[in-house]
C-alpha cells in the first residue's frame, strides 16, 4: 500500500498533501467484493475506470438498501456513515478510483449485515442453500451468475 505523503498517519491512507483529502483505489477480480463497511467521518466518491459492478448502500436514517449497476465512466458516492459495499458482476476486473473528503478516514466492517439482507442476500447470490435458484440478480443483472464464480 502506498505510504501517506502528507499529514496523515504513515501507511494508513494515501493522503493528498495539505488538502485534507485522501485517495482510494479498488481492483476486484471476477466475483470479488468489498465487504460491507462504514466510514463514520468521511464521504467517499469513486469513478469506475474498468469493468462493471453493483454498488450497495444502506442509507443513513432511512433504513433503505439501494443497489445500483455501475460501469466504466460512472461516478458514485457513499454518504458519511452509510453502510456500503461493491461487487464485481462482470467477466473482467472491476476497477474504481476516488477520494475521501478527509485525509485519514476511519473504516469499520459491518459484521453480520449480510445475514440480515433476506431476499437481497438471495438476489446477490449469497444464499448458501443450494436448493434455491441464485443465478442472476432477479433478472436485473443476468450477467452475474454464481456458477461463474
Automatic annotation (TrEMBL):
The keyword Manganese applies. SMART domains: Cupin_1 (SM00835). GO terms for molecular function: manganese ion binding. SUPFAM superfamilies: RmlC-like cupins. The keyword Cell division does not apply. It comes from Sphaeroforma arctica JP610. GO terms for cellular component: extracellular region. Keywords: Manganese, Metal-binding, Secreted. This is Cupin type-1 domain-containing protein. InterPro entries: Cupin_1 (IPR006045), Germin (IPR001929), RmlC-like_jellyroll (IPR014710), RmlC_Cupin_sf (IPR011051). Residues 5-132 form the Cupin type-1 domain. Its main location: secreted. Belongs to the germin family. It is found in: Secreted.
